[in-house]
Amino acid sequence: xxxxxxxxxxxxxxxxxxxxxxxxxxxxxxxxxxxxxxxxxxxxxxxxxxxxxxxxxxxxxxxxxxxxxxxxxxxxxxxxxxxxxxxxxxxxxxxxxxxxxxxxxxxxxxxxxxxxxxxxxxxxxxxxxxxxxxxxxxxxxxxxxxxxxxxxxxxxxxxxxxxxxxxxxxxxxxxxxxxxxxxxxxxxxxxxxxxxxxxxxxxxxxxxxxxxxxxxxxxxxxxxxxxxxxxxxxxxxxxxxxxxxxxxxxxxxxxxxxxxxxxxxxxxxxxxxxxxxxxxxxxxxxxxxxxxxxxxxxxxxxxxxxxxxxxxxxxxxxxxxxxxxxxxxxxxxxxxxxxxxxxxxxxxxxxxxxxxxxxxxxxxxxxxxxxxxxx
Length: 375
Hints:
TIM Barrel, Elp3/MiaA/NifB-like_rSAM
């Protein structure tokens, strides 16, 4: 009888290993993050464990909600090229699964993968509204430009069940504190009862992110976000309700959604958008290998061309984090994109400056008593 085979160790997969796609997920790759000191090796124990692991890993995982009691909910902005002072993120991670999301690396700080974990393990800040009331009640607080959902989509699918964003908007409405929100979700229509009255007081603006008009591209690029046509309908619904609404054509990805720039702006303007902005694709930290992997899965014929053009705009690198260029890129191709954007918004009558807010009616929670807290 021959001796039993010795277990064999299989080398860890290379950085840009192409993984099979998971239905409804932007990435199937639980990519290690930059703070992870652990290394995993596949191990064949002679019982078919490698085949079993491969089968299990390709089952589409369900979304897991992890409740968090946040110590604070309002974050200050220290970046000189961002046009707001404060931000609120009711969640960490985002079910939409946009493969290009610049916020994916934030999951690294939680010892979670910026890949699959970012879109399947969602941190829900269940006490967000309570913390916001405390912030507004502070004697030192002064109202300023605030954006809801900068590193997550505040109206991602789980919001329909949890209502954390709704509770935050209720506090903003009660305090009459102006805010802006950027979203890919039609779920914001639910809160029109709060947002529309604020709009009449010049205290809110909404931007819908429309990355493509092609539903097939949108489905693989942003698998759990609303369809392009549904987002345009949301722009129309908000505009008809009197809410100042704009469109974000971001990120611009060369040879992928970049040819659609003018058509997206035209469709948004026709739906009622009055403002617009766009940002070239950014690939910070782990987003770069994730995007490389996605290109090899979904756009293999264009992958080299797309990356070459991106590097032309990013100083020869996948990403350029410098203030002043990270949101615009540099070089001839970046300048051509900016020129196309300027000409299109001018032709369509779209503004590029933020909506002006009225901060004079801000009321700290300590001054909200009785029935006044309802209006």
